Amino acid sequence: MSERLSLPAAAALTLLTLGLWVYLLLFQGAGVQVANRSGAVIAGLTVCQGNGECLHRERLWPHQIWRVPLARAPGDQVKLTVQEMDGQAQSLTHTPGTTEKRAAFVVGHGGQIEIQ
């Protein structure tokens, strides 16, 4: 590539990348979000919605956020289930209001699940 084209190409790529990040961070409202604030690795996460559609994730590292791409209509129930080390499962069901864009869960210390 000639030097005449490299600067405009790099600028266009930079603007495209910046635009994508802004879209992902600010405008992607649908779905479910699970944040790990427990300080430990969480294993065996499952997010299900009222129509029976579920997604599973093996591990969620400390301070990591899982954005679950479930197409969710306002008012649909969302259930988060977390498998604990002793084989027990802890879950929480949430029905977001019509004004909430995203159902958000936080897994805190001791594996306690809260709604954000």
Task: Give your account of this protein's structure.
By secondary structure, this protein is an alpha+beta fold. It is built from one helix and eight strands. It has one helix at residues 3-27, and strands spanning 32-36, 42-49, 54-60, 65-68, 78-83, 89-94, 103-107, 113-115. The strands form two sheets. The chain has a four-stranded mixed sheet with strand order 4-1-7-8, with no helix packed on it. A four-stranded antiparallel sheet has the order 3-2-5-6, with no helix packed on it. β5 and β6 (89-94) form a beta hairpin. The protein is elongated. It starts with a helix and ends with a strand.
Low-confidence stretches: none
Give the helices and strands as they follow along the chain. HEEEEEEEE
- Range of helix content: 10-25%
Distance from N terminus to C terminus (CA atoms, Å) equals: 49 Å
Residues in β-strands, percent:
35-45%
Largest sheet: 4 strands, mixed
Please state the overall shape, judged from the principal axes of the Cα atoms: elongated
How would you classify the helix and strand content by structural class? alpha+beta
Mean pLDDT: 81
Figure out the total of helices: 1
Number of strand elements: 8
Overall radius of gyration: 18 Å
Q: Order of strands in the sheet with the most strands?
A: 4-1-7-8
SSE map:
Blueprint: H1 3-27, E1 32-36, E2 42-49, E3 54-60, E4 65-68, E5 78-83, E6 89-94, E7 103-107, E8 113-115
Parallel strand pairs: 1-7
Antiparallel strand pairs: 1-4, 2-3, 2-5, 5-6, 7-8
Structure described in brief:
By secondary structure, the chain is an alpha+beta fold. It has 1 helix and 8 strands; from the N terminus they run αββββββββ.
